[in-house]
Amino acid sequence: MLGYFKYYNFFIDNISALLKMNNKSLQIALPVGMSFYVFSAISYMVDVYREKYSADKSFLNVVLYICFFPKLMSGPIVRADKFLPQLNAWNSLRIEDFKTGIQMFVIGMFKKMVLADHLGVFVDNVFYAPTAYSSLTVIWATVTYSLQIYFDFSGYSDMAIGISRMLGFRFDNNFNYPYLSKNLTEFWKRWHISLSSWLQEYLYIPLGGNRKGRFKTYINLFLTMLIGGLWHGADWSFVLWGVLHGVGLIIHKMFREWKKILSEDVFETNKIWEICSIIFTFIYVNFCWIFFRADNIQQGIAILKQIIAFTNGINQPYTWTMFAILLLMISSIMVLKNVRDKKISAIELHYPVIDMDSVIGLSLFWILCGLTIGMAYYGNTAFIYDAF
Amino acid sequence: MALNSFLFVVFFMGLYILTAIESHFFRGNLKVKNAIFKCNLLLGSYLLIVYINWHFAVVMTVIAVVTYICTIGIEKHRKKSSWIIQGGVYYVC
Fold first, then answer.
1. Residue in A346, A341, A309 with CA at minimum distance from that of residue A176
2. B6 vs A176 pLDDT, higher one
């Protein structure tokens, strides 16, 4: 099913080009959220096969697990053992769940409609004609895209998890400040957590994981990321994006083993090293996003050439990017401080952020709603991950 | 058809209010309340997907049916379960 709807044209186009045959691609519309619910279905079947839990006898429950509307379009990929027990145990709507859920929903909307969509206008302009812009503007556009995709997808996830919460379902967060990661391995533990854990459990480990020697581990990592890239879209630019992440993960694994040989913990304790690691990881992730955003590999290369060329061109004001960076920094500092003070996981700390029982809390909530409506971008903008 | 944020909020509010009213009505009978809640969610999910494109609802239903049959089959025929799981995964992929 997924192969037909998502990859048929990709393979036909490539085979036709390779064999110089007439192109026989079809007009196929990819069903919304198909990649997400196919992964949910696979995880459920595999878990039942592995006897992790027994199959649900109710057809209604299984249909609902596949097509539960808040997570239908772009995930998160919730496992059946998380969803079905909550569905069966549901007994009423709770006001506490509503208060927390609506906060998550509104914050998600703010991220998507105010931040991501405004950032997207600048990114679209630069990626449409990169050669018209100065190198500095193109670099800034790539940084802006990193922010845009984060706010877009984490905004969607917050909205989906918030709606589920209002209905009485508790799902894990899908993002945990990924741009604060000190290496690529950590990045994949913080970015799109439901997908990376799915890939680890149903692809990387069945391939052998790290149990069959160093070389096989590298191959498994590479294959997992390659398939992860292809999952995002049927295009060579996504394949390249997956390859780059695979190579990055292999290099990090090699580096970790080298550190073990040296048995130096200077890397772990040194603050400057820590900050440099965060910056370096961000730069690499940012570089990979270029191919993810580009319409094809040629466009990605054109952007890289424009960056390296250091030429003059149109300079654009960066107001929204600065605003987004500022908000991200403030929220990161607040979360890091709270994590240290309360000694708990950053994921647990996200919500509820506002005490809706107090007048100040309630006022803050309505201010946030007003800001979201007032500052939102009302152009035609879909969620980036809708296309996957 | 594209679904905009405003329509989605209206749809969700409708579903939520409906669930709250039904929940109040059947507060004495947990089993019925749970069943109605599930039906509401299913109806909401299908309404949403049909609004976008009704063909997508067919694809989703086929995947759900295959998943259901495979998982029940795996449990019933443990000895042949590797064939069933392979068939199921190949089909949805």
1. A346
2. A176
Asked if residue A104 lies in contact with residue A166, where contact means CB atoms within 8 angstroms, the answer is: no
C-alpha–C-alpha distance, residues A327 and A320, integer Å? 11
**Looking at residue A56, what DSSP letter applies?**
P
Query: CB of A91 within 8 Å of any CB in chain B?
Result: yes
Q: How far apart are the first and last CA of chain A?
A: 14
- Residues A150, A179: Cα–Cα separation, whole Å: 9
Position B1 pLDDT exceeds 70: no
What's the CA gap between A57 and B70, in Å, rounded?
12
Residues in B 51-80 with any Cβ partner in A closer than 8 A: 52-53, 55-56, 59-64, 66-68, 70-72, 74-75
Q: What are phi and psi of A65, to 5 degrees?
A: -60, -40
Kindly state whether B44 is in contact with chain A, defined as any CB-CB distance less than 8 angstroms.
Answer: yes
Ramachandran area for residue A177 (φ above 0: left; ψ -120 to 50: alpha; else beta) = left
Q: Cα distance from A381 to chain B (closest Cα, Å)?
A: 9
Closest Cα in chain A to B18? A93
Instruction: Please judge whether B49 and A72 are an interchain contact, meaning their C-beta atoms are less than 8 angstroms apart.
Output: yes
Is residue A387 helix, strand or coil?
A: helix
Query: DSSP state, A356?
Result: T
String of b and e for A70-85 (b: at least 16 CB within 10 Å)? bbbbbbbbbbbeebbe
- A278 lies within 8 A of chain B by CB: no
Q: Specify which residues A314 forms β-bridges with.
A: A133
| Dist CA A80 CA A3 (whole Å) | 23
Q: Give the mean pLDDT of A319-330.
A: 78
Tell me if the pTM is above 0.80.
Answer: yes
Confidence of residue A262 (pLDDT cuts 50, 70, 90): low
Instruction: Read off the tokens for A14.
Output: 């490539």
* H helix or E strand, kind and range, residue A165: helix A135-167
The residue of chain B nearest to residue A4, with distances taken between CA atoms, is B93
Query: What is residue A263's three-state secondary structure?
Result: coil
What's the pLDDT tens digit per position in A133-174?
889 889 989 999 999 999 999 998 999 999 999 999 999 888
Q: Is A232 a catalytic residue?
A: yes
Written as six digits, the tokens of A289 are: 């996003």
Measure in Å the smallest separation between the Cα of A34 and chain B Cα atoms: 8
At A101-111, the pLDDT tens digits run 998 899 888 88
Tell me the percentage of chain B whose pLDDT exceeds 90.
26
Answer yes or no: are the C-beta atoms of A119 and A151 closer than 8 Å: yes
Q: Left (φ > 0), alpha (ψ -120 to 50) or beta: where does A310 sit?
A: left
Instruction: Please tell me whether the peptide bond between A76 and the residue prior to it is cis, using omega within 30 degrees of 0.
Output: yes
Please enumerate in sequence order all residues whose Cβ is within 8 A of that of A378, keeping only pairs 6 or more positions apart, or say none.
none
